[in-house]
Write a structure and sequence with these properties.
The chain has 134 residues and is an alpha/beta fold. Helix content is 40%, strand content 11%. It starts with 13 loop residues before the first helix and ends with a strand.
Length: 134
């Protein structure tokens, strides 16, 4: 049984959803910056976050205090359009948000068999604790 209060939000349009969600993310990032001087935003690829990334990329904000990382990655070169890093750089890390630091996972010289420990270490050293995970 689930305990605690559950909040449901409904929106008339996708535009309203993206606007509200982007403002919530910015407010939470700012809260982390106010508390500890920096913030982390962990994201995934795929088509679902594209409108949100486009909106966030244009938000005037202290992006230089934000580190962006991936919660998952396809093990393909980052220039490949199937790469989540490629997607994040194409839709989020431009305009205003290009000031954010990015920590990627994929490395050409690293085999997929060695990736788990290396990526876990990158997350622990450069991103943890996470402030926002999408």
């Amino acid at each position: 049984m689930m305990s605690g209060k559950v909040n449901f939000h409904s929106f008339e349009t996708k535009v309203d959803l993206v606007e509200t969600f982007s403002q919530t993310i910015i407010q939470n990032l700012q809260g982390a910056i106010d508390k500890k001087g920096s913030a982390t935003l962990i994201v995934s690829g795929g088509s679902t976050p594209k409108p949100l990334f486009k909106k966030l990329s244009k938000e005037v904000f202290t992006w230089e205090k934000v580190t962006v990382g991936l919660c998952d990655e396809r093990w393909v070169n980052t220039s490949d359009t199937d790469s989540n890093e490629h997607f994040v750089k194409e839709y989020l890390l431009k305009y205003e948000a290009k000031k954010a630091k990015f920590i990627g996972m994929y490395k050409d010289e690293m085999s997929i068999f060695n990736a788990q420990s290396v990526c876990s270490q990158k997350m622990e050293e450069g991103l943890y604790p996470f402030d926002i995970i999408l």
